[in-house]
Amino acid sequence: MPKTERELAFLRDLYINEDWTKRFTDLLDEHLDLKDVENLIYLNAGTGHHCLEIREKAGEKTAIFGQCNDPEMLSIARDKALATKSDVEFSIGPIESNAFDTVVADATFIRPDELEEFISETVRVAEPGGEVAVMIPAAGSFGEIFSLLWEVLFNLGLGEHGAAAEKMITELPSAGRIKEFGENAGLVNIRTVASNEVFEYENGEAFNSSPLLTEFLMPEWLKTLDENEKEQVSEKLAQLIDAEDGDLTFRFSVKATLLMGEKSYSH
Description:
alpha/beta, Rossmann fold, 23% strand, 2 domains
């Protein structure tokens, strides 16, 4: 049964921040220079965890703002700010153009076909010359899962959905494509950095009970299936993981990628 927004917000806060988002934010922390930043906005700030961490690292003269994904996440983020006596201002809704000298955006759950538009929106709110940083899972991610999904779909007689499994692989943007999105949005001095992150599960059952997979990744990957078909695929996928790996753990990798650049003065 699908989770409510409130339930997903709590799962995001309790599990996803540490299990998933931290892989990307650690990379960002290595490359984001907070020196001389006057005002920073964090788009898709989730439940505010990393945004509040940036507040702790930034200077007192830096104003930090966070845009949350939905009202439930906004409520958690504001409660956190209140509990830690942080001055981060969390909000929801449209952001003014050309308003911030630094813009950070979490695109780790943005659909691949919506990524270019998301990057353009991120660049829009940066002032000319402002720094932009976007966290993205790039091509080469989830390959171990996608190959098993293709096999499961084929074995279940859902052959027409085999094309969907192939599309999952081809839709994820390469580093070159990500740079192109940045150029189209008006970024200059573009650079990308990446780290290969490995996710490990004891067996098929552990994989199938992970909130990251069951609530945040699988629903998008299996969106063309009905509920009965989704249950069949999940069950067979767990069985295939155990059959393939035996007593070994199951691992899949994600290419955590950071797109950085400055907004062009002419854009």
